[in-house]
Amino acid sequence: MAAADDTLTTPVKLLTIGNSGVGKSCLILRYTSNKFSTSYITTIGIDFKNKVIDIGDKRVTLDIWDTAGQERFQTITLSYLRGAKGIMLVYDITDRTSYEQTRNWMRNIRSHGDEDVNVVLVGNKVDLESKRKVTYEEGVALAKEFGVEFFEVSARKDTNVKESFRCLAEKALKAVLVPKSTGGAGGVKIDDKSKGKGGGCCGGGSG
């Protein structure tokens, strides 16, 4: 296969969404800069980072938008759903409320997101296993309910972060190249391969 063209990139808009404090900013920082900070400031409104990767013969610029989880910023967050071809829906495995709130976030995605948006469900902070409040099996069950991929990850330990973003990016790129593809339930287009410890689509390992 020919090498990706250095001069031409395909822009793909990704979004992280979920309750405040689940680690969305830390996941993006780990993925884009391979860094982790314990003093990361809570996102106010919207933040943005990008990363260029190769997917097959395409050089892709991932525009990754980091949304605030606080209720007072929800209107801003929801406005950024439009145009996103990939959404990482994040909860914290040590915070059961954040897990339960993912259903509300998914309803917002289905109501305000594009018809061909792709979603990956991510349970963050698996490095805090002793404080776990949400089982891996519950994450798998929720992903199956949504019809999406599932990964357990750790931004701190860099566990499955690259795999989860890569999975989302590959799905989102297909939506960009083939607009308005046939969607899944509720307008969320995804293959139901939620199996294996780290998720199905990109061969993620255990969390």
What is the name of the CATH topology? Rossmann fold
Radius of gyration, in angstroms, nearest whole number: 16 Å
The major pleated sheet works out as: 6 strands, mixed
Give the second-level CATH assignment, the architecture: 3-Layer(aba) Sandwich
Measure the end-to-end span.
Answer: 32 Å
With strands numbered from the N-terminus, the spatial order across the biggest sheet is 2-3-1-4-5-6
Element pattern in H and E: EHEEHEHHEHEH
Total strand segments:
6
Structural class: alpha/beta
Q: Give the domain tally.
A: 1
Mind telling me the CATH class? Alpha Beta
Protein name: Ras-related protein Rab-1
Function: Protein transport. Probably involved in vesicular traffic from ER to Golgi.
GO biological process, one term: protein transport
GO molecular function: GTP binding; GTPase activity
Task: List descriptors.
alpha/beta, 6 helices, Small_GTPase, Rossmann fold, prenylation, 207 residues, GTP-binding, 6-stranded mixed β-sheet
Topology, element by element:
Blueprint: E1 10-17, H1 24-33, E2 46-55, E3 58-67, H2 74-79, E4 86-92, H3 96-100, H4 102-112, E5 118-124, H5 136-146, E6 149-152, H6 161-177
Parallel strand pairs: 1-3, 1-4, 4-5, 5-6
Antiparallel strand pairs: 2-3
InterPro entries: P-loop_NTPase (IPR027417), Small_GTP-bd (IPR005225), Small_GTPase (IPR001806), Small_GTPase_Rab (IPR050305)
GO molecular function: GTP binding; GTPase activity
Family: Belongs to the small GTPase superfamily. Rab family.
